[in-house]
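Handout, section B. The chain below has 220 residues.
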Amino acid sequence: MKKILIAAIALLPMASYAQSEWELPTQKQQQEEVKVVENKKIAETYKPDLSPYLAGAVPEVDGKIVFTRDIDLSGMTAQQIYDGAYQYLDTLTQGSRQKPNGESHIALVNKKEHSIIAVCNEWMEFKHNVITLDRSEFRYVMIVNCKDGHLNATVGRINYLYDEGRATELKITAEDWISDRNALNKKKNKLVKLSAKFRIGTIDRVKQIFGDLEKALKKA
């Protein structure tokens, strides 16, 4: 009887160990479930704010998409503003974003009216890493009109050329692709998946162009 009791006691640690091993997967599963919930909460917390890209973010004039920026430059003459704007547009059309084919250039100037027209054909990158390069040609016309103390700039005649030469090639105007009627759902509270990256990229890029122009002029 004594030998049987000793043998039973000797087996207790092994039984306890075996039991804990069977319980580990359950504990791990519970931990993973907690992590999933936590990750979901984090993702919801850091969900990007798309409100700047919803209804009204892409302005239209007589059915055409035209972005406009008015910049007050008190104390500067029309000629000074014109010279600064010309220098900025010359830099823009020769920048690293532009396609290296000479299409981007200052097309026309009116020195008397202090106006400049620039044509741009640049790359709009959506994703760029070691594995993937997702981008589109982004073509637009920028017009600048200068007066004493004031500049008016517009970006219009926008179109895209995506995946040229492939089965997925897309050649389309901004009006048919990123306008409110084509790039938003019926409730105007969500972006249409196919054109979302073009709409976001265009809004961000035009904002950057106008911002850089204003900085350049205020440094002049």
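Note. The chain is about 45% helix and 30% strand. Compare this with the example in section A.
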